Amino acid sequence: MAIWLTGCGAIVVIAYLLGSFPTGYIAVKQLKGIDIREVGSGSTGATNVLRTLGKGPGALVLVLDSLKGVLAIALVYWLFNFAPSQNFIPSTVDAQVWQPWLVTLVGLAAILGHSKSIFLGFTGGKSVAISLGILLAMSWQVGLATAGVFAVVVAISRLVSLSSIAGAITVSIFMILLHQPLPYVLFGIAGGLYVILRHRTNIERLLAGTEPKIGQNVETPEQTA
What we know:
Elements: H1 2-20, H2 23-32, H3 46-53, H4 55-82, H5 95-115, H6 128-138, H7 140-157, H8 160-177, H9 182-198, H10 200-208, H11 221-224
Helix pairs in contact: 1-4, 1-5, 2-3, 2-4, 3-4, 4-5, 4-6, 5-6, 5-9, 6-7, 7-8, 8-9
């Protein structure tokens, strides 16, 4: 059992490191030579990359950040699908009970890593794109439903932050409506609240009417020099 628990703990740590990989920071640094944390909202996520470099790099970071979430959850599926052949999982472990809880822990670790990256001095993004990847790997139905809410709100408002908050609020509702396991419902609640908290400054700007909409680019240090 000790080896099994160590293996589970290792996967949680790996998920955090996956989430920590700073795709947005690297993309802007390589393409523009600037630190994205010093531009716009200061986030390393896809939205700030979109405003800084445009649609192409923004879409690339969105996809890569989502894939980080998918890979984190895939680690758990790999553990339960392949490790048994190596007699790694103790006979006392009920996979149907353990797997949803481990998926939830891994998902939360990846979200934390994305927003508090060990490679960027515990700064990072707002965990929206990586959350989408996690949801799609956890329950594709919930992931698509949440993405649908995001798409509808962004199409109407042109505000990515408002759309992200709307998705964060509704994800736990979809978890319940689609009869997902209790750990997944708790993930929806905890992850949703965390994403909303990461948007505190956006909420302040939304209330003040100063939140930038899609298409409003930010000035880079080069442009203001």
